[in-house]
Amino acid sequence: MSFIIIVLISAIVFLTLLYLFFPEQIVLLMRWLMRKRARVERKTVTVDGRTWPYLEGGDPSKPTLVMVHGFGADKDHWTFYAPWLTKDYHLIAPDLPGFGENDRDGELPFDVGSQAARLKGFLDALGIDRPHLGGNSMGGWIALRFAIDYPDALRTLTLMNNAGILGADESELQKLAANRDYNPLVIANLEDADRLIAFVVRKPTYVPARLKPVIYADALKHRDLLDKIFWTIADEMEAKPLNDELHKVTVPTLIIWGRHDKLIDVSCVAVLEKGIARSNSHIFEHVAHVPMIEDPKATAEVQRAFLGEHP
Question: pTM of the full predicted structure?
Fold first, then answer.
């Protein structure tokens, strides 16, 4: 038996043992590999006494691109996307308060204006001036609020299936959330995780059973806080959508959407285009709510082309 075959068999046995008895290590290994592939590193900065973990990659001398995650997500959701950006951009992806490794203080205000103000403090703490700013879902809403509140503090805006806007048609999420006894974006148990993934993406990825308790441990541990944050922003969405403030966005804006989004209806694209003077859009016909995960390469190509027009 050749040395290479022995090494391959040993590796398979090792990974199998990890999967069966130490699934946490498998998930940590996967995260490490994703970050290595994306060329990003985990760092922290203190902002107003609160530690902000974030991912950073790329050459700091190149244009800075800050990407903000959505509800129930975290900084590592951008590792799928980062490999196509970190060669030409200085990428920053933070964990927002309430999510990931950031502060889980349930007494914080989680309205979008407060989160945008905290994001401004984070960027100031890093000394980042006028970056390209983007976000997905709730993160897109925060980025949009940031562009309205701090019009001179960014260079461009990229919105990916962003919340905060009412379109002509109700989404499936809006219809489900009308029943205040049910939160469709918070899982009750591990079996419920498959439903949530199928709700968010068009073609769900298979998750091995042994890894589910590790991957979804955070969502289950912080279920009550996530529920609180969801209803906070759901109430804000109903009472104060940003439709009438879109004219305040003065920077060049890219709007990216997935046609099959069940959370935020694609009819929002027309509202954004009409309201933001310097905007253009791209609708993907084969994805749903998280295009940067469902087709990261194609999504990055659209954003790179846009950013290239606004150096």
Answer: 0.93
